[in-house]
Design goal:
The complex is a heterodimer of chains A (300) and B (266). By secondary structure, chain A is mainly α. Chain A has a single domain (2-286), classed as ABC transporter involved in vitamin B12 uptake, BtuC. Chain A has 11 helices and 2 strands. In chain A, helix 1 runs antiparallel to helix 8 (193-219), helix 5 (147-169) crosses helix 6 and helix 9 packs across helix 10. Chain B has helices at 47-54, 82-88, 105-112, 121-126, 129-148, 164-176, 194-211, 222-228, 246-251, 253-260; strands at 3-18, 21-33, 36-40, 62-67, 75-76, 90-92, 182-186, 214-218, 231-236, 239-244. In chain B, strand 7 (182-186), helix 7 (194-211) and strand 8 (214-218) form a beta-alpha-beta unit. Chain B is globular, with a radius of gyration of 19 Å. The chains are: A mainly alpha (300), B alpha/beta (266). Chains A and B meet through helix 6, helix 7 and helix 8 of A and helix 2, helix 3 and helix 4 of B.
């Protein structure tokens, strides 16, 4: 039973990270029907910024939680700046181009950012400090769920609830939904669509950075390539849940994380990716538009 | 009522080419404060293209679109993005209804207020007194507008669930939410039954009289056009063939020809 719970909690942790990153994919897709392949790289850059900041802060004598929070905030700001710039230079000029062009541009940005970090930092794995503190009250159940896992789950849950409220109730959220449903009409009722799209990239990037910092400090090492696999998995999660659908991305992430964790635990960790993508194929056969996705009519 | 000293919209020599096709050819049109102006013409005459040029969806090939917002500086708005045109004070509706279907009636109106409010994400998260007051004002103003078009009871309904006539009225209310001085209505009566058309007729006049919003409309329903418009412009094959008050238009031979076809001579 403990083994099951352990697998369950580690599946939930993976899943919630996938969900955080998947939200960025799905929000961008929902608004401009673009798969932002460079999104995984934003996550990686978030982790690198956090590593650099925490190194600097340690020298200045900060410790523990204060480093975690400061590093996360600065990583979020950096990621936001990257996301904003990415959209501005790589996607906005192609807004009215055929759909393949921005896709290629996205792949190009992904490769560029990977290699930029490779050159500017290092090709090696770097040790990431354990920034998440151990809580004493977690001792009794530490064998199924540790403090880091708890922090990851709670942070992701709060972030996702926050995002839902933001989209449902705020002025910006309404503008985002309106833009998603009919971009031209949104412009005609006075919504600055370019600003809304920038905002979408910024929010998605901030979520990815949160994911990056959490994972890096949970796993303990990073390199320039971590964004690729995380991006692929999160994209899978987004498709699984129904791309363009925000609760779908969260659900897809969790389903994928659990599938991987149970496959690794009960079958073999060598097969976890096989199971993860097997689940994707299986669900897409039954529900081609994803778990929560609606069949959309092609807009003409 | 019509203030002929006060021109709101002034279009001069507007031409729009699509490749080799001239959809709008040298059309000029003015709207004065407090006026209801109709733009009519057979299908394919270029009326909607004209609207698209004026509201920034297309950038006209030639010509000037000038707005003279009351109390503000005049501006040439050719090529401005639609959201800027809306911010200047011109709002429009579409021939085929384009509501945000998966949002509630109230939210549709609140989106219309978007360009008149300014709460940022940070403001929304911190919920300072200013942003809360602004949010409340937006909701209040939206309810006022819903009351004007008789949709208060449906405020929390999804827009897609409204009957056709109500969707039309919602679209007009959403356009009004942007605080325009000029409302451009593209075939507001299309697909409406006679009763709905009559209600619409009253609604349009009421908007002009109570809200002090001038109106430029494209319409095929001649009864509606003749009833409410002060002046009428007629287009055919992209050209402006006549203008005048309803009596003049009714008896203008060119207009009759455009609508009924040329007399067959042998």
């Amino acid at each position: 039973m403990d083994y099951f719970l352990e697998l369950f909690s580690s599946g939930m942790v993976r899943g919630s990270i996938y969900a955080l990153i998947a939200l960025g994919y799905t929000m961008v897709y929902g608004i401009i029907q673009l798969i932002n392949f460079a999104h995984g790289e934003i996550y990686m850059i978030g982790a690198f910024v956090a590593l650099i900041v925490s190194g600097v802060l340690t020298i200045y004598g900060f410790s523990g939680v204060s480093i975690l929070i400061l590093a996360a905030v600065i990583a979020m700001i950096y990621a936001a700046a990257y996301g904003y710039t990415l959209e501005k230079i790589a996607y906005r000029p192609l807004r009215n181009a055929p759909r393949l062009s921005p896709l290629i541009s996205a792949i190009g940005m992904s490769l560029f950012l990977q290699n930029y970090v490779l050159l500017a930092q290092t090709p090696d794995f770097l040790r990431f400090p354990e920034l998440i503190p151990e809580f004493e009250f977690m001792e009794p159940i530490a064998h199924v769920m540790g403090s880091a896992e708890l922090i990851i789950l709670v942070t992701s849950a709060i972030t996702m609830i926050g995002l839902t409220l933001l989209i449902k109730f705020t002025r910006v959220g309404k503008a985002m939904r309106a833009t998603q449903q009919d971009m031209t009409m949104a412009r005609l009722v006075g919504v600055n669509v370019d600003q809304v799209i920038s905002m979408t990239f910024i929010i998605g990037s901030v979520l990815a950075a949160i994911g990056g910092v959490l994972v890096a400090s949970y796993i303990g090492q990073i390199n320039f390539y971590i964004g690729f696999m995380a991006g692929v998995k999160a994209f899978t999660a987004a498709v699984l849940g129904g791309i363009g659908n925000i609760p779908g991305a969260a659900l897809g992430g969790i389903v994928l994380g659990l599938a991987e964790s149970f496959a690794a635990g009960y079958v073999s960790s060598a097969y976890e990716d096989v199971f993860a993508f097997g689940v994707l194929v299986f669900i897409l056969i039954l529900r081609p538009s994803g778990l929560l996705g609606k069949a959309v009519k092609q807009k003409v | 009522m019509v203030d002929t000293m006060n021109k709101l919209l002034e279009v001069k020599g507007l031409t729009m080419d699509f490749g080799g096709l001239r959809a709008v050819d040298n059309v000029s049109l003015d709207v004065y404060a407090g006026e209801i102006v109709a733009l009519i013409g057979p299908n394919g005459a270029g009326k909607t293209t004209f609207f698209n040029c004026v509201t920034g969806i297309y950038k006209p090939t030639h010509g000037d679109v000038m707005v003279h917002p009351p109390g503000k500086k005049s501006q040439r708005i050719n090529g401005f993005k639609p959201n800027r045109v809306t911010t200047f004070g011109m709002a429009r509706t579409f021939q085929n209804i384009r509501l945000f279907k998966n949002m509630t009636v109230l939210e549709n109106i609140m989106i219309g207020r978007h360009c008149r409010t300014s709460t940022s994400i940070l403001g929304a998260i911190l919920r300072g007194a200013g942003s809360r007051r602004q949010e409340q004002e937006t909701v209040d103003r939206s309810y006022q507008l819903l009351e004007k078009v008789g949709l208060v009871d449906e405020a929390d309904e999804f827009a897609k669930n409204l009957p056709y006539g109500a969707q039309r009225r919602l679209e007009i209310a959403r356009a009004m939410a942007t605080d325009p001085f000029l409302l451009l209505l593209d075939e507001p009566a299309a697909g409406m039954n006679p009763q709905e058309t009559k209600d619409l007729d009253e609604l349009i006049v009421r908007i002009r009289d109570d809200e002090n919003i001038s109106i430029l409309l494209i319409e095929h329903d001649m009864k509606l056009v003749m009833n409410i418009s002060e002046r009428i412009y007629v287009m055919e094959y992209g050209k402006e063939i006549a203008q005048g008050n309803p009596q003049e238009i009714r008896s203008n031979p060119k207009v009759i020809e455009a609508y009924l076809g040329e007399e067959a001579d042998a």
